[in-house]
Fold:
Amino acid sequence: MEENDGQMTDFVISNKNESYIHVRCDEGRGWELRDAFSFRPPGFQFVPAYKQKLWDGYLRLFSPTTGLIYRGLAPQVMKWIVEKGYTYEYDDENYDNSFSLTEAKSFVESLNPKHMPRDYQMDGFVHAIRSKRKIILSPTGSGKSLLLYLICMYLLKKGKRGLLIVPRSALVEQMFSDFQDYSCNNGKDMFKYCWRVYSGRDKESEHPIMISTWQSLYRMPKEYFEKFDYVICDEVHQAQAKALSDITSKCTKAEYRIGVTGTLSGAKAHEWVLMGLFGQIYRATTSKELMEKKQLAELTIKCLLLKYSEEECHYMKSASYQEELEYIISNTERNKFIRNLALSLEGNTLLLFNFVEKHGSVLYEMLNKKVKEGRKVFFIHGGTDVTSREEIRKIVERERDAIIVGSVGVLSTGTNIVALDNVIFASPSKSKIRNLQSIGRGLRVSETKQSATLFDIADDFSWKARENFTLKHFFERIKTYSEEKFNFKIYKISMKG
Structure:
């Protein structure tokens, strides 16, 4: 390869741009590197291309043909080279080690924000600016928007233009509103600094901070993204979507790349793609730590395991996953149980479902028929516009006994309601990320709320040695509760067919 003082260097690494590094090596070592950075993502076996034998199921992050790999994976590439006993050359000065905690505190004081950051938010701020690339893990309810505000304001001071990506249109306005809330100028300066893009709004602006959904921008040409000096992605775990990874890759001049999320899936392929796009992972804090400090509500999880009759278990023993779901959400006795549970709880309750027409609408109607006069019941789903969601949020914040029947897809990463006392999982879910995000809906504290309860409804159709699909998903949720050190207890409830 390259000769250095009479020694041959096996790998020569250089920065192509802010998105990719270029790796030069001989052909054999190139194929070695490709194989080392190849992964099969979860669910690959269900992809049509794999079924049709058009794809072997591997996601390959390095191409021997182009020599390119995501720049955020440079530490992993160098580690692999050393472990293999090879040598490399790479001169990368992408760190700002001069940025200290003292300087960070001085900057925050100059902002005079309405809400002072906590220690873990300051640490996350320092790590982000120092490394310029970082995935910051901080649980739902921990104040990620304040962290993003500090980063954006600091980079604004340095004359940088940036793109702040959020997953939903509702979160564009919510992020802007949060920034206004943090500002000492009653938020008036945010109109000068921030431009919001969603639902057909003009994508061109001279504002230094652009807040947008990825859906609004992914069709824009590469030239559009070259004006950004930094890119920040909220709920960065959703960057597994190809459109979002395309956006971040097009930001070839974005020196700073920050991803923020409450949790990652645990799948290696997923995490390495994200690290490639945004950098190494830094855990700012955990839900358990924040609960112990009374900065998040103390959580109690009551797992309600519904055991069905022998006849029903026999009937369902050969059911497919889809057939099992259909049976569960259409089960009248189960829906009555959920309705009665919601009506029996004190405080504001969020009832989460997966299917709007088949389940959400049914539960909403059942509740309306039995709810006592004066108690408010709301229905939020994908068809509920941003304005209506915000109106419902404001109403619920003033209430003490409201019920929200909400879609998991919308509420897990959407509307932030502090005054939630109870959360009910009405539909089984196998997504670790979505489950933790949904739990986070109920963890915010207020002057009147220091605790919250989650009711996890699971379904046992086990027949002899066979465990049904949603029961297996329930065991995965239990595993997550254990890993997060949540306080949970399982209650077995007999369902009479």
